[in-house]
Design brief:
Blueprint: E1 6-8, H1 17-30, E2 35-37, H2 43-71, E3 88-95, H3 108-136, H4 142-146, E4 155-161, E5 184-187, E6 213-216
Helix pairs in contact: 2-3
């Protein structure tokens, strides 16, 4: 893709800071998303999250998804299905109150890893919000405060798996959609491609990617 926005966070601490900030500004104004590398979350942490997520799906969710597909007759559809997403998901809530201890079937290692991962993502999201504040001429922390409710920010993780589909030409992975909220971070599977984005004419949105982590504003 020609001139796809690519932001290297490491360059913010060097002589290329002004150029990097200008690239962020241009990406937000003209693309609506950008790819971010060197975001500070170690690759080994991302690898562990990916491994445990896939193990949890295989052990606890795969059979349930197959039963759901069979019950809806989706394994033998003849016409395009437009009213569902082909995904198996569960949700973790981190703030204002965590529900990680309440999610059934999660092993202790997975709960611990996801708590640590959430803290790292929260820190990264706040860093990016402050960069956006700087580009907008706002005081540091302005956007963070804007997203606070009466109990503080709402922050959670949607964990999604996209199993092989017997009729991919008839059942899409996810229907076209826009996401609600402020900062959205997406950890994309680097072994299964398919993420598609609509290039916007204007607006403040961004997408972040590295091994393969994505952020959406």
């Amino acid at each position: 893709m020609t001139n796809f926005p690519l932001i290297n966070l490491e360059k913010l601490s060097g002589e290329e800071r002004n150029d990097t900030m200008e690239k962020i500004k241009d990406a937000c104004e003209n693309w609506g998303f950008f790819e971010l590398v060197n975001h500070g979350i170690p690759h080994d942490i991302l690898d562990i999250v990916e491994r445990l997520t896939k193990e949890h799906y295989r052990k606890c969710m795969e059979e349930r998804f197959k039963e759901l597909v069979a019950s809806k007759g989706l394994d033998a559809v003849q016409t395009e299905v437009k009213d569902m997403d082909w995904e198996s998901t569960f949700h973790l809530r981190h703030l204002p109150e965590s529900n990680i201890s309440e999610i059934p079937d999660l092993i202790d290692e997975y709960r611990k890893v996801m708590k640590d991962f959430a803290l790292r993502l929260e820190k990264l999201a706040e860093q990016l919000l402050d960069l956006l504040c700087e580009n907008l001429g706002l005081e540091k922390g302005y956007l963070k405060k804007a997203f606070y409710g009466s109990r503080g920010p709402t922050f959670g993780t949607k964990v999604a798996n996209y199993p092989p589909c017997p009729n991919p030409e008839l059942v899409k992975g996810l229907r076209p959609h826009t996401d609600a909220g402020g900062i959205i971070l997406l950890f994309q599977d680097d072994k299964v491609s398919g993420l598609q984005l609509l290039k916007m004419a204007s607006g403040l949105m961004c997408l972040l990617c590295a091994t393969p982590l994505l952020l959406h504003w």
